[in-house]
Amino acid sequence: MPGAPAVSYARPVDILPAVVGIVVVVLGILVSIALHEVGHMVPAKKFGVRVSEYMVGFGPTLWSRRKGETEYGLKAIPLGGYVRLVGMMPPAPAGTRPRDGFFSRIVADARDASVSEIRPGEEHRAFYQLSTPKKLVVMLGGPVMNLVIAVVLLAVVFLGIGMPAATTTVESVGDDSAAASAGMLPGDEVVSFDGAPVEEWTQLVGMVNDRAGETVEMVVERDGEQVALEVTPTPAERPLTDDQGYAVTDDAGEPVMIDGALLGVTSEVERQPLPVSTVPEAVWLQVSGTAEAIVTLPVRVYDAAYQAFTDEPRSQDSVMSVVGVGRAAVDTAGADDYTVIARVQLMLMLLASLNIALFMFNLIPLLPLDGGHVVNALYEGAKRTVARVRGAERPGPADVARMMPVAYVVFVLLIGVGAVLMVADVVDPVRLF
Hints:
Elements: H1 12-46, E1 51-67, E2 70-85, H2 102-116, H3 132-161, E3 163-173, H4 178-182, E4 189-193, E5 196-197, H5 201-209, E6 216-222, E7 225-231, E8 234-239, E9 257-262, E10 265-272, H6 278-295, H7 297-308, H8 322-333, H9 340-361, H10 370-390, H11 404-427
Antiparallel strand pairs: 1-2, 3-10, 4-5, 4-6, 6-7, 8-9
């Protein structure tokens, strides 16, 4: 109707990928956190420690149910979780005098809160009573669970779904190309090139590159019969590829070009399972990369903030918050150039990376992270070993409460880093595509 205002309608297909991405990342984070806490809870209960709470999330409780002596629940903010192990900190050593001061009160309050959770007659069930090996099993159980999740996810990606690989079968032939002039057709399977057998597409690419402008015999299999063709590869610049056939890029992300030759054909691509060895290789690659990111975290956080609030583009290897992971999941779900199975793969790899990050991050040797408790257990074990060798009296549990001021400072720093990265991920998120 002339003069009527134009009305636009949002297409459901535009919203669906975002919803799928958000749901996947939230569920992935929740499951990863839940299994992390299971990794702590199961061995703790096995060793007799009373576990009073198992919670996924922080903030107000949305749902909870008590089973036995443990309350299981789900909280409103899916950014973490915890299990409450009774008696994490021993009482003050005999003869300890109360001191004034803010940090001294923090230490005293932490001790009192820990001791108050122990029921009369159950002192032997307190966490601090465990031996050093048992403490290590309990505290490493959570991070190791995240590592196991990552290994399983990567195994599904590489061994189950498989990765796309170029085959020796021709998918398309370009018009006026060297292949078209030679009579090559879609569906032809390349058997040999200049008398040498062709087993992989990357092998054929290398052969063609070395014969620019030369006429060479190439044998293809067509309808069950071998057909000999005379082909003259056209000299041309082409992208440099690695051993897996992926384009090599420079520091700016542009493909590196080299002198070579072209046939003017594309290959059919099919998914093929990779060798089992690729799983530990991928895990090590991500572990080492995450370790480097943790060591350089202050610099990386500064770079992320600087890039977010200046004209400098956000780098793809920038550290991200949970918000950034969610944005990456949305981008993955909405990638139009990828098939459904490819999107699933990218989602699984994203969750695997997240679990590797949780594994490494929790091993930082500072309270309140698991690594801080691991260091404390090792210190306690070392003291007891030295005392046993010297024939001295066995020392009591290490006084973990004295490290609570450090835990508070680390906690505040983590909140600050998380807030900066969340803002950066909203203002200028990492673009995967």
